[in-house]
Amino acid sequence: MKYRDLRYLRVAVDNLDEAARFARDVLGLQASDRDDERAMFRSDDRNYSLCLSTAGDGEAIALTVAREEDLGALGARLEAAGYTARMLSTDGARVRQAKAVLATEAPNGVMVEIVWRPLTSGWRYHGPRDAGITDFGAVQLACTDVAANETFFVKGLGLTVSDWAGDAAYLALDEAHHRIALYPSARDGILGAAYEVDAKDSLMRNWYFIQKSQLPVVAGPDRQAASGAMYVTTRGPRGLLLSYTTGMEKGPQIEARGPRQFPDTALSHGQWGSVTEQ
Asked: CA–CA separation, 209 vs 26, rounded Å?
């Protein structure tokens, strides 16, 4: 199955105003559409890549397909693999700013929404500060059963495994090393999100900005062994891990060489050995 992109992340928050302030003033995203229950933010040409919600509509990640018939094909594939999927109503798709949406649930309880014709902004993206953000890079999912979630994404949705680090699995849907990472955890749900920046200089500026803002540096600056991505991570609303990344490996050589197994050690996740908050 071919996807266009990792489209958006929807997370539940307790206080919409406070979470929106963090996304705008700290993370550096551009505010987009908002109502009484949802605040959306841009990171690139998408009309939004992050939706903060108090609507009780569940947490979700979204993948984009190119053709309407892809939704039917994916529904059949999921059913054949033993999973359920349903088409959302016209109103449900409208709220998500897409023409049509197929929804299914991963074993860890996170909804995966397959969207067709999601809204793209005609205006150039510009954040409130120079964070250097260029793309919505990846999401990290917490899984009490990593193997079950890996099977769901590979057999059910057609993603491919790029690499493993211990039991953690990196999943690709385009030429980037990964867009979804599955991590073993004592809980299920969304663990974090990563935004790609244009250069190492921007990564380091954001590191200093996090420190000056008196926010925790949860991990980094460091580099992943598997993907080559450099990153620095802080903690946002409801404990969501939010990262800036740059330098992730991209290209057809990733699929051509097949997945590799990295050891279950801290250095597989941070080659430089920076201190990681537990």
From this structure: 8
- Cα distance between residue 119 and residue 230, in whole Å: 30
The two three-digit tokens of residue 216, written as one number: 């925790």
What is the DSSP code (8-state) at residue 196? E
pLDDT at 195: 98
User: pLDDT category, 275, cuts 50, 70, 90?
Assistant: confident
CA distance 169 to 183: 7
Residue 140 main-chain phi, psi, to 5 deg: -120, 135
Residues 172-181, mean pLDDT to the nearest whole number? 97
Two tokens at 241?
């891990």
CB within 8 A of 248, min separation 6: which ones?
137, 138, 176, 177, 178, 196, 227, 228, 229
Cis ω for the linkage preceding 221 (within 30 of 0)? yes
| Residue type at position 109 | G
- For 122-133, what is each residue's pLDDT tens digit? 888 999 999 999
Residue found under tokens 């919505």:
136
Distance CA 143, CA 109 (A): 9
- pLDDT score of 68 more than 90: yes
Which of 259, 56, 106, 252 shows the shortest CA–CA distance to 170?
259
Alpha carbon distance 172, 175 (integer Å): 7
Residue recorded with tokens 């949802």:
38
**pLDDT, mean of residues 144-160:** 98
What's the mean per-residue pLDDT of the chain?
95
- Could you tell me the two tokens for 177? 């090393």
